Amino acid sequence: MSGSFYFVIVGYRDNPVFEMKVLPAGKFIAHAALDLTDENMWLLNNMFLKTVDKFNEWFVSAHVTTGHMRFIMLHDIRQEDGIKNFTDVYDLYMKTVHNIWWVLHQFYVQVSNF
Amino acid sequence: MAQCVQSVQELIPDSFVPCVAALCSDEAERLTRLNHLSFAELLKPFSRLTSEVHMRDPNNQLHVIKNLKIAVSNIVTQPPQPGAIRKLLNDVVSGSQPAEGLVANVITAGDYDLNISATTPWFESYRETFLQSMPASDHEFLNHYLACMLVASSSEAEPVEQFSKLSQEQHRIQHNSDYSYPKWFIPNTLKYYVLLHDVSAGDEQRAESIYEEMKQKYGTQGCYLLKINSRTSNRASDEQIPDPWSQYLQKNSIQNQESYEDGPCPITSNKNCDNLLSLDGLDNEVKDGLPNNFRAHPLQLDQSSDPSNSIDGPDHVRSVSSLHETKKGNTGIIHGACLTLTDHDRIRQFIQEFTFRGLLPHIEKTIRQLNDQLISRKGLSRSLFSATKKWFSGSKVPEKSINELKNTSGTTHLTTMPEMAAVSAFLQPGAPRPYPAHYMDTAIQTYRDICKNMVLAERCVLLSAELLKSQSKYSEAAALLIRLTSEDSDLRSALLLEQAAHCFINMKSPMVRKYAFHMILAGHRFSKAGQKKHALRCYCQAMQVYKGKGWSLAEDHINFTIGRQSYTLRQLDNAVSAFRHILINESKQSAVQQGAFLREYLYVYKNVSQLSPDGPLPQLPLPYINSSATRVFFGHDRRPADGEKQAATHVSLDQEYDSESSQQWRELEEQVVSVVNKGVIPSSFHPTQYCLNSYSDNSRFPLAVVEEPITVEVAFRNPLKVPLLLTDLSLLWKFQPKDFSGKDDEEVKQLVTSEPEMIGTEVISEFLVNGEESKVARLKLFPHHIGELHILGVVYNLGTIQASVTVDGIGALPGCHTGKYSLSMSVRGKQDLEIQGPRLNNTKEEKTSVKYGPDRRLDPIITEEMPLLEVFFIHFPTGLLCGEIRKAYVEFVNVSKCPLTGLKVVSKRPEFFTFGGNTAVLTPLSPSASENCSAYKTVVTDATSVCTALISSASSVDFGIGTGSQPEVIPVPLPDTILLPGASVQLPMWLRGPDEEGVHEINFLFYYESVKKQPKIRHRILRHTAIICTSRSLNVRATVCRSNSLENEKGRGGNMLVFVDVENTNTSEAGVKEFHVVQVSSSSKHWKLQKSINLSENKDAKLASREKGKFCFKAVRCEEKEAATQSSEKYTFADIIFGNEQIISSASPCADFFYRSLSSELKKPQAHLPVHTEKQSTEDAVKLIQKCGEVDLNIVILWKAYVVEDSKQLILEGQHHVILRTIGKEAFSYPQKQEPPEMELLKFFRPENTTISSRPSVEQLSSLIKTSLHYPESFNHPFHQKSLCLVPVTLLLSNCSKADVDVIVDLRHKTTSSEALEIHGSFTWLGQTQYKLQLKSQEIHSLQLKACFVHTGVYNLGTPRVFAKLSDQVTVFETSQQNSMPALIIINNM
Fold first, then answer.
1. Could you tell me the CATH number of the domain that includes residue A74?
2. Where would I find the TPPC8 C-terminal Ig-like domain in this sequence (chain B) (predicted)?
């Protein structure tokens, strides 16, 4: 991905659990995309919801885990293939979640874990 | 979209009303002006018809129109300028604000509960104004005049002439090419002649006649006589007439915003923050390459291309300014003051008449004409037109149909058509077809992209969105609204975004987060459009969604914007609280950002405080104060060590709280108080607390003494990454002084910070808390008056250090007030110190509810003067050998103005120190004089007296060890028992290194009282903790055993041998060279050392490292008479000297330490604890028997150690104590380490009370009776003469016990083993072989025995078996005691 991006994992209370590449506007767009993510997740069978929302030049792709954790990725280039790496993130995420030290939705996952 | 007052069915017809022009003569205008209204305004409230309107279309079909409205307006020959429209719209929007106290709806969506106002009146006002103010355009016929009212007054000189003048004027305006505006529907405009008649002033007759004339000229359907002003203005106040104009005319809106915009706004000038958090990026995307410039297009509305417009457009300018005039003059002006209700009815009637007689027939005619034209024309896209026509023909809105038909038939601009088609389709009754939204989409797109006409697109969007809303198609509506947001109009974008947000929240499953996002966008656009109140409202609405979810940066952004907007709206409290939010929450912002926030916050705060300079100080949010960590200290700071002088450690804020030690101090104080109060602790006693913290008992008001400082330690924490600078930091307090005379002065002096004569306040001029740092500040108060003090909080100037120091680059940004900004930027404010007490948990109620007790640590009571003691230690060592005696000096200083008395010191380790007993006065009193002098009191002796003991005696009472007294509490021997103010006394103090090796922390608690009794404070205390490091020196073990020899006894069995083993356990070879045992002393009530049985010549008894030595002493019982005369506390001291100096062991300090060690030894629990009550007699017996084996001999070993320190030889002195209690049992100077008990299995049965304790051991019994055989060592007997050899043997039996003992002596050989028989078989006892005797206490009995031998040889005579039992005991303890000592006799043959 050559363009800029913003990635966030959002917990079931709509609280950000993990953020990467913080840009102020990104938060707003990602947060606003949660509505469509939640809507789409019941419509599709996949965990990967592809592009759920669009705001100006930003595309919002989402991936939903069974535990209703939402991975939101903002990117400015339409690139479905590039977003495939959600599965990689998901793998790492699962490893982290199964760590007993992970207190549910309450603290920021350390960046080093990813 | 939010809910609207108008339904869509009302909105659309109202948006497309037939327009009628009005042209008034000056005189007519004057008449209406009497009511403060123009003619058009006069008609406005009545322009909606109350009755139905019937109309026929060209197909002769009847249409019924309800609530038809016509728009009458004065002719304005200049099109409205876009700028003016913009301004008008802006004013409309800013004038419409949510009503105060409007109950907002609560919408629950998922986890979100949101307060949302369902209506947006500003949007409706905007829409209405927008649609009305839309300039007429060429391509369509909306807002084109259908008719023109020509109005003249009856009072005019030539009314008829006036009418024709007006008619010509109208014609000129419509047809002259000078006027491109206003637009007229058709060339043949309907003219309607209206004669205004002022009833109160005019001649009615004349009016009627003129009207008649008009009727003849223009026809009855073309003219009207309107009578108004029936009321003379002076009667106005009598009657209450409703004012229907008020709601139509510009509302008397309070244009607060204007005034706000005037002032300079320093905040917004600081662009720095804006850039960092800007949403600008979002907006850029919305713009679709549509320039502001529409000039190139035929649909051009912007008349600014005509340069004349802006110059000679006085009409328009006037209209706008007149609008302002009316707006401003509105206040207090009653419209229609000259109109009665009849006049109202007349106007209503007039409109009705005009519509039915004039307008409608005209419209019908026009439609027919157009229709004919259309049919006759076989032009382009015929099918399309017909289709459209067909649609319109069914429409209920003929006037629009007319427009549309005209439009389609005449012009090239087809865009309006789908729009109108869609609208018409929607309005069709019982529409079987779905609403053709795509028509609208097409229209919007064309308007926007092809025509570049945003105004038309906007109209289309407004209508379409409303239509979609009515069909609950919210998401389409939202999309539509969002699509029209663009760069060219912030106000429009803001309103549309807000409506889009409302669409999201109104969806079946509300999209809360989209709502929030669009609200933010709307707020942003509002703020760009200068609509600050609306911007603030939007941000606040959105905040509800983001709050508390962890989107901290988003929250910060919103809070920051809210803060700024609130600031510019002068809602300073809101601004402050919003900024406070950013600062106090754990922020993830960068330091730069935080610094910017902080400065902005300070700026706002400064403004707040400047507004009300005399108001209460504002509460500052930064830095955090951990109020429960607040500590309060009463008293002066500790003085640093001054040379050899070392001040008592006492209590200070530097000491960490330690629950163990505080408990220890408490116990010490209780101990001394109980001693002072004769063993009882008074109920009013509370341990003195000099330092209050979260662990101390803060339930009572602490007592502080006047003229003694109070130090409050406040724990600050800076949560920010930027440093905070607090200046002029001091405590805030209130004080209620109490008169010295005792009567309560109820006058509460609040915040008398400026009265230093009451309470002095220390001010810390600068206190810097670095980023993310926790730091404590110690603030002092100096009470100068008695009373009740309440420490309320801290007051300070909050600021930050110069930005450029920490944050680079920020100063370079434009608009940032560098230097001056940060330097001057500090705000005076306060923070309260409120400490919550501990949670109560005593009663049931307290347990079931959450209740907190009071915490009074900040509410001290200032009491009268008390003495204040300071204690200094001189030559106080830090390291000692175990048992070493060192002399130090203590200086007591009374630094107060009151004499003190009753000075005592209490310590858990009384064996560590002494002030000397009563004999201590002999020692030199000054520390300098005692340099290089032995700590002991010595007497030079001659060497001859070496091996014999020197006897002295002393009573333990003299050394403070009496019966019942607490040895821990030691009165300090002040010369006069009183220490006067300013006086100081130096007293010697001997220290003895504790026996255990290691670091010892020894607590001293000095207790003293005031000479004058104080009701509140009975006593005061001073603490000192001495830390002593001890290293190993000697280890002494001693045993005592009975001497078997009876020779020197004067008929009494009391002769002991004492063996003393001394080992040098010191291993530090560098320091201590060797130990010399210089003296061994005994101390006992009953025993004394008599002499040393030392065979070696090592008189000095030197012991190098790891060497051992053994001493043997003989001890005897003291003379009976001595013992009798002496009190039970009298001890006999016997010194055996190895050197040439006698240390008087019965004097200080030797005896002091001896007694101390003795008393501490006695405190230890006894090994035997007979508790069996049943066998009380048995117990007594056992005790008795035990007693027989007991001695109370105490050995004191005095030594000198030669130490090399810094190549200087020092002689250290010391003493060790061994307490001998039991014969034959080894005792140690050094407390033996107890083996840690093995892990025991848990026993689940009750241990049986066995009789272990009741049975004395063999050993104990054997010590009851001492036996000795007296016989000749060798005996010559001529066996050849006499075969039997008889030897007389004396058996001495000595009773060692204090009781009568029955003794059975059995001489018979034991026959248990044949071997033994063989050994002993060769001799036999003759005569009585078994004796039964009773021996009185300490009686000696001798038995004459005869032994009979038959052979020569060596025999053991020690065969008699002695059984002993206590006489008063019947059966118990028939235990034998074996005399195992061999008694050999040699029988020789002669």
1. 3.30.450.70
2. 1264-1366
